[in-house]
Write a sequence for this structure.
C-alpha cells in the first residue's frame, strides 16, 4: 500500500472537478449526452488517468500501457474530457463532440479517437473484453494492468456474469473492474428496476476479490486501486458507492438526469456548484 | 479422395497452422469435441480457451485477445453465433473492426439430427448485412483447410461457415483460395450455376446430368459471399444469359439475394434461386435427404437451370 499525501489527494480532486466541468459543458453545448453517470464516475476516472495508470498520451499504442475500458460507454463525455486533459488530442476538439466530421462519436469509437481502447455504447461488453486483453498480457509476459469501468445497470445483463466466471477461471489478477454504483438508471432506481444486492456477495461468489468503497473519497479510491495490485490470484472488483449527478445539486440521485442536457440557467448553476465544491473540497 | 467432413478439415488445419503462427489463439464454447478445435487444444493448451456455454462472452473475450495483438479463432455453432452473439459480433467485431475470425460450425442443416433449433439457415443473410464483415463458405474439407491460413493472414473480421457433414468432394488438397475471387469449376455457355458450400458438389452433379441432355453448363463456386466477385457474376451473365444460384440457406438474403443484387444493379438476367424457401426445417436421420426435402436436391438445381434457360430473351 502506498502513502498518498494530502497534496496528491487535493490535486486529484481538482482534476475530478475539471472533468465534471468539461463534461457538463460538453453536454450543454451538444444538447445531448449523459450527465448523471459522467459526474458520478469522475473521481474514479481522475484517479485512474491522472495517477494510477501507466499511459503515454503521446504514444497511445505503447504496448506496455495500462488499458482502460469504458464499459459504460454513455459516459463518453467524461472519457473524452479525461483523454483531452491528458493530452491525447487538443481540448478544443471537445467543443465539436458529435459533429459529423469530428472524431468524437456519441459513444466511444476506438478507430476514431486516440486513447479509446475499445468501442462501446451498448452495455455489458467491458468485463469480457477486458478478460481477452488481460489474457494477452499474461501470454506475452507484459506487466500492464487492465481496468474496466462499469455501470451498475450493466450488472443486470447476463454477459457480465459470464465474464465474471471466465475471469475467475483464469485467475486474472491483472484485471480490475470498478462498478460505478450510483443506484440510478434511466427508468428509476436500480434497487427498484432490478435489485443487484447483495452485489458484493455476488462478485465474491464468482471468486473475485471485492473491495467496497465510497467512490467519491479520493483516498479510498487510490487505496482500493493499490490493494488490487497486491492481489495475485484473482481479478478484483471495486464496488464504488457513488451519487448519480454528483456535484450538481439538482441532478443528484435523479434518474431524469441520466441522459438529458442542461439549459442555460441549469448550466450556470452546475458550473457554479462544481467550482464551489472544488474550492471547499 | 477420402471423404472427410468439412469440420475435420478445418480442425486439423487449425492445429497445423498453430505451429506456423504463434499468434493464433482458439476459443470455444464447450463444443471443441464437436467443432474439432480439440486438435488445436491438445497441441497448444496455453493458446486455447474454453469459455463454457457462453457465446456472447466468447466473442467479447476474442475481441480483447485481438486488441492485445492475437489472432483469435472463435468457434461455436453457427446458429448460436449468428443469433445469440449477434450484438457482440456487430458492435465489437464488425463496427470496432477487431481482427476476430468467427468459425461458425454446423452450417445449414448439417446438424441434421438435432433439428431446426440447431440448423443455421439465415446466418449468411445476417452476416452479409454487416458492414466490415467478410463472409466465406467453403465447399469441402480441403477447401476449409485452405482457408485457415488465408483468413488468419487477412487483417479484419471474418465469418467462416463450416459444415458439420462430409460434403461432396470438390477440390483436391492443392486447392488455393483468395478472398473475393470466385472459382470457375466448369466452363459452359448455356447457363451458369453459382453455388456455395455443400451445394457446390451437388451443382457439379447437376451439370453432369444437364450435359447428358446436351446442355453446356458453367459452374462457379462463390465461396466469398462478401465481398462478392461481381466481375465473375457479370461475365457469366453476359456469356450465358441465364443464372441459377444454389445454397444450403434460405434464398432470402443469402447467395441468391447477393447475386440478385449484382444482376439487377448491373445486368438484369434471368435468375433462379435454389435453397430453403422461407420455412423452418425438420429433424432427419441424415443430411442428404433433409437437403432433398427442403428444395436443395440435385433435381432442384437441374429444374432451376432449365427454368432459367427458358426465361432467356
Amino acid at each position: 500500500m502506498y502513502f498518498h499525501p494530502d497534496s496528491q489527494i487535493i490535486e486529484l480532486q481538482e482534476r475530478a472537478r475539471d472533468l465534471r466541468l468539461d463534461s457538463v459543458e460538453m453536454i450543454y453545448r451538444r444538447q445531448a449526452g449523459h450527465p448523471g453517470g459522467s459526474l458520478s464516475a469522475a473521481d474514479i476516472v481522475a484517479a485512474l488517468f491522472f495517477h494510477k495508470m501507466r499511459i503515454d498520451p503521446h504514444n497511445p499504442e505503447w504496448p506496455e500501457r495500462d488499458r482502460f475500458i469504458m464499459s459504460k460507454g454513455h459516459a463518453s463525455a467524461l472519457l473524452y474530457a479525461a483523454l483531452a486533459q491528458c493530452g491525447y488530442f487538443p481540448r478544443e476538439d471537445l467543443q465539436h463532440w458529435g459533429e459529423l466530421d469530428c472524431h468524437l462519436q456519441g459513444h466511444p469509437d476506438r478507430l476514431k479517437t486516440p486513447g479509446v481502447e475499445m468501442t462501446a455504447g451498448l452495455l455489458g461488453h467491458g468485463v469480457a473484453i477486458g478478460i481477452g486483453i488481460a489474457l494477452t498480457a499474461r501470454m506475452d509476459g507484459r506487466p500492464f494492468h487492465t481496468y474496466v469501468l462499469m455501470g451498475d445497470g450493466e450488472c443486470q445483463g447476463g454477459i457480465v456474469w459470464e465474464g465474471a466466471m471466465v475471469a475467475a477461471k483464469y485467475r486474472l489478477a491483472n484485471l480490475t473492474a470498478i462498478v460505478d454504483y450510483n443506484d440510478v438508471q434511466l427508468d428509476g432506481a436500480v434497487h427498484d428496476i432490478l435489485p443487484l444486492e447483495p452485489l458484493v456477495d455476488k462478485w465474491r461468489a464468482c471468486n473475485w476479490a471485492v473491495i467496497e468503497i465510497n467512490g467519491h473519497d479520493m483516498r479510498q479510491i487510490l487505496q482500493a486501486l493499490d490493494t488490487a495490485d497486491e492481489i495475485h490470484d484473482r481479478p478484483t472488483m471495486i464496488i464504488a458507492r457513488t451519487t448519480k449527478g454528483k456535484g450538481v445539486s439538482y441532478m443528484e440521485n435523479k434518474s431524469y438526469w441520466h441522459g438529458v442536457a442542461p439549459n442555460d440557467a441549469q448550466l450556470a448553476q452546475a458550473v457554479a456548484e462544481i467550482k464551489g465544491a472544488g474550492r471547499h473540497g | 479422395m477420402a471423404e472427410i467432413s468439412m469440420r475435420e478439415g478445418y480442425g486439423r488445419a487449425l492445429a497445423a497452422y498453430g505451429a506456423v503462427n504463434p499468434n493464433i489463439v482458439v476459443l470455444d464454447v464447450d463444443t471443441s469435441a464437436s467443432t474439432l478445435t480439440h486438435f488445436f487444444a491438445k497441441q497448444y493448451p496455453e493458446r486455447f480457451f474454453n469459455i463454457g456455454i457462453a457465446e456472447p462472452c466468447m466473442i467479447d473475450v476474442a475481441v480483447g485477445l485481438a486488441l492485445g495483438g492475437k489472432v483469435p479463432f472463435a468457434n461455436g455453432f453457427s446458429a448460436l453465433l449468428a443469433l445469440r452473439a449477434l450484438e457482440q459480433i456487430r458492435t465489437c467485431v464488425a463496427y470496432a473492426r477487431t481482427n476476430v475470425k468467427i468459425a461458425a460450425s454446423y452450417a445449414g442443416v448439417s446438424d441434421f439430427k438435432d433439428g431446426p433449433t440447431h440448423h443455421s439457415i439465415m446466418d449468411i443473410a445476417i452476416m452479409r448485412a454487416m458492414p466490415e464483415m467478410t463472409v466465406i463458405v467453403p465447399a469441402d474439407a480441403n477447401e476449409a483447410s485452405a482457408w485457415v491460413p488465408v483468413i488468419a493472414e487477412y487483417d479484419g473480421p471474418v465469418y467462416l461457415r463450416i459444415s458439420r457433414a462430409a460434403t461432396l468432394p470438390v477440390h483436391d488438397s492443392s486447392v488455393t483460395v483468395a478472398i473475393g475471387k470466385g472459382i470457375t469449376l466448369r466452363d459452359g455457355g448455356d447457363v451458369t450455376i453459382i453455388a456455395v458450400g455443400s451445394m457446390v458438389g451437388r451443382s457439379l452433379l447437376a451439370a453432369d446430368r444437364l450435359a447428358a441432355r446436351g446442355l453446356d453448363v458453367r459452374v462457379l463456386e462463390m465461396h466469398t459471399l462478401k465481398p462478392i466477385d461481381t466481375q465473375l457474376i457479370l461475365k457469366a451473365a453476359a456469356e450465358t444469359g441465364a443464372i441459377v444460384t444454389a445454397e444450403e440457406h434460405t434464398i432470402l438474403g443469402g447467395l441468391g439475394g447477393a447475386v440478385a443484387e449484382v444482376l439487377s444493379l448491373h445486368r438484369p438476367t434471368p435468375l433462379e434461386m435454389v435453397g430453403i424457401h422461407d420455412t423452418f426445417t425438420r429433424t432427419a436421420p441424415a443430411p442428404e435427404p433433409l437437403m432433398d426435402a427442403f428444395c436443395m436436391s440435385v433435381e432442384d438445381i437441374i429444374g432451376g437451370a432449365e427454368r432459367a434457360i427458358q426465361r432467356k430473351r
